[in-house]
User: Which sequence fits this backbone?
DNA sequence: CCTGACGCAATTGTATACAATAATCTCTCA
DNA sequence: TGAGAGATTATTGTATACAATTGCGTCAGG
């Protein structure tokens, strides 16, 4: 992370995810270079990486812009993700070890702890969630699957709203993880796949509902919508 | 394609696919730059692209090598591809238009023509095959799916052996395409998905059989193995 | 008022020099 | 002889200058 191109990557990515650089804005290499305190060379590097993650789009004439995500795009990404993570769960069920199962239990225990208090610790929740899903991917043992999913999990529209939260929804996510653990313990690939797919698709619909609620009225960000968005971020 | 980085990309890619740069060989930027007649800058660009396509792998210290594909890796890639292309076929079935259907028929007609003669035109076959699958992807209408599949279709081990051929196997591939067209004409997504998945998985097993035959004895490249490899390349 | 061509400004592409880092070699000492 | 420290070489990372391309505004002609 000490290389200039890594710093540029992290900085630009943050600016996009935080909304400082909203969708559609042009990303000039020189301007970014100045902002990041490096030269254009590492910025170009960073832009290529972000382009592969689809956070940045390029025109046919090589100009870069912050990618715009339509609701259809989000749907598309979730559909793919539901399929790929479902597949990962199926693979993992057939290769699950006692150690990995313990890791999963530990990650979900961390989640339980994060949501137990009155004011849930969303950061800890997301971290536990990340660990949980990463552990499954690792057991699945497909390098390609990891690479392909990496491009799908980073959704600006998600992260920008990820710090809202709703206790009930977070608890449901924990509970689905518990069910996944049960499926893994029984090495039931079909079951694990079904749970995982539905886990992801439910998240999509929670997002879509929140999106509708939010776009209906500008100030209509009520509790229900916030909760839904939180579920989304939490998978 | 006139930009230097594009020329470098094409040149390096060719050297890998043709076997001139065998798996495991280190790819020094300077050496490649000289070989391609450009400076290191566009070579770096090209290497990043090839890395994303998994034709090139990098160590933790940023040195590039031609990627090595184990049989397990190939299996992994085919499994994913069977799933993703099957999904694409399902989507496409629900959105198929008369125009696109005509395109598919035309592409498969080109394939029929390529394999009709005594000495099949493998180049024309592969091109028709590419058109066929690309048309399906286009109808499926998922940008992400296109991007993800792109990383899976280029397999060095496949292309290096793609110029072997076996008439019977090529004809079977054509025939499966015809069946896909029938499924699309009836807008039967489940059918189309099943055919496509089996289409890809059969290709994998043809490849695996050929691989075993070839590694059993160095000079054991008999007709059956050649035919199998050809099917593989043809999806 | 519209259209298109022209030229200037902005942006990206490439080459090159130099800095930083990793790999390799060698020599010494145990 | 083997291991490790240090020097040497090879390789990659970064900055900068310049070339090529694209975008955009302006102005002339209809």
Assistant:
């Amino acid at each position: 992370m000490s290389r200039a191109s890594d710093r540029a990557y992290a900085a630009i990515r943050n600016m996009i995810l935080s909304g400082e650089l909203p969708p559609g804005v042009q990303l000039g290499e020189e301007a970014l270079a100045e902002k990041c305190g490096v030269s254009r060379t590492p910025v170009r590097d960073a832009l290529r990486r972000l382009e592969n993650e689809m956070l940045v789009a390029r025109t046919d004439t090589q100009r870069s812009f912050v990618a715009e995500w339509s609701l259809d795009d989000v749907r598309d990404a979730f559909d793919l993700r539901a399929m790929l993570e479902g597949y990962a769960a199926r693979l993992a069920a057939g290769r699950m070890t006692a150690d990995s199962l313990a890791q999963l239990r530990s990650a979900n225990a961390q989640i339980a702890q994060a949501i137990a208090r009155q004011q849930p610790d969303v950061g800890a929740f997301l971290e536990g969630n990340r660990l949980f899903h990463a552990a499954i991917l690792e057991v699945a043992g497909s390098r390609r699957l990891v690479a392909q999913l990496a491009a799908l999990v980073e959704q600006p529209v998600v992260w920008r709203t990820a710090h809202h939260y709703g206790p009930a929804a977070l608890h449901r996510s924990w509970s689905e993880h518990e069910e996944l653990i049960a499926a893994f313990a029984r090495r039931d690939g079909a079951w694990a796949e079904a749970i995982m797919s539905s886990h992801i698709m439910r998240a999509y619909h929670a997002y879509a509902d929140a999106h509708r609620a939010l776009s209906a009225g500008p100030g209509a960000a009520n509790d229900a919508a916030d909760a839904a968005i939180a579920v989304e971020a939490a998978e």
